Amino acid sequence: MRKRDKEIIAALERFKCLTRDQIATLFFSHCKKPHTNANFVLKRLRRDGYITANTDKSFHQYIYFPNPSTVKKNSQKVDHYLLIAQIYIDMMKYDVVKQYEIEPSIDDFIPDAFTRWKGSRWFIEAQNSLYTAKQTEQKLKKYLEWYESGEWKGSRFVNSNKPIFPHVLIVGKVNKKVDVKEYPFRIAQVESIDEFMKQVEHDGNTAQKQTQQAQKIKLESTNGVLQYDFFK
Prior knowledge:
The chain has helices at 3-15, 20-27, 34-47, 77-92, 133-149, 193-215, and strands spanning 18-19, 51-54, 63-66, 97-102, 113-117, 120-127, 167-172, 187-190, 218-222, 225-229. By secondary structure, it is an alpha+beta fold. It has a 5-stranded mixed sheet, covered by helices on one side. The chain has a 3-stranded antiparallel sheet with strand order 1-3-2. The relative contact order is 0.08.
């Protein structure tokens, strides 16, 4: 078996399932025809019994699973796992994802993923259905209780030298925005990683403009009298 074959199987075991397009992006993006190359390899791996697929024609492309699979092909969790995988793929477009642990267990709750990305640590919540504000608040309540307990400071999810609570990134369908100011840790709620990065860029540009504007304000002392010069 080729190295790439083993990597594809390992990815399916890690993410539970992947679409053809996701596999093409992860392993064949360097090829002239990623989808064609992916189809060829996936067909061979299915033939040899290493992987299985949901070939339901209601889907525009096959969904692949490891063999044996820990998820039923018609499970409602399939779309959820595909979104978790897509978040990882989208993150990789902007920076190397140094760690991406799916469904890590924390006391009495389980985030969808934990990741180290862009110099920070994140808990990921993937929403492929519209949550009510109450449902979202109940989920965030678990994070808040863990934060207030202080147990997170000694966990493997933080840097022991500089314990900072990981950011919580909610990605997917948005029904009602969470009031992030109510929480003592950072929360972002976006429909996609692309939207999140645009938001970060916008906030960064705004902060830069504010800094530049502040630098233009000159405080001078003339004969003991303070004068302010504003440059627009």
